[in-house]
Hints:
Helix content is about 45%, strand content about 0%.
Amino acid sequence: MTMSPVKKRPRWLASPSPAVLAAVGVVTALAVGLGVRTVGAAPIGVSGTLAGTGARVQARSNWDGIYTEAQARRGEPLYETSCAECHGSDLAGLEMAPGLLGGEFAWNWNGLTMGDLFERVRVSMPQADPRSVSRADKADILAYLLAANGFPAGDAELGSRTSALRGVSFLAEQP
Length: 175
Ligand code: HEC
């Protein structure tokens, strides 16, 4: 399995490794060559998919109804079981873990993609055993997070394919 070597986003945002910088450089060059608008600081793992998703990179966002209400309802008890002990039942965070709610959370992810958020949860959460929760359940949990953060529900469920999720931007403010 291909796992990102870096699990903690704040750490690699603060000091990206030379390999990351090189990868970002390549992606940026590719994207510029193709006339693609890049998303903020290009994160790990974008290489190869950004060019592939081409002009759709910023076509959709978390403001476009990218999950269903039923999915978010499924995600709530899953969150409670696997995430709440650290992030709080109200998502506001506890001493040990940051909140997953409101401006601080949204601005942390602003300009990245749903794929980045999904991968972050997929490879590193729940912290003690990321494999204890399936991809599908993690998509449902993300749907719950989106609902709790006030982003609108829609007609189609949020998928669990990272490549597709990378085509959906995460924006703190409604465009
Ligand atoms: C054992 C405690 C623990 C559990 C359980 C846990 N987390 Fe975390 N989580 C953390 C800590 C600590 C951080 C911040 C430091 C780090 O990245 O490791 C974090 C960071 C995050 C972040 C990044 C927040 C940001 O704004 O950058 C997300 C998203 C997240 N967790 C989601 C989840 C989800 C979803 C679950 C359940 C599937 C979960 N976590 C379960 C401890 C936990």
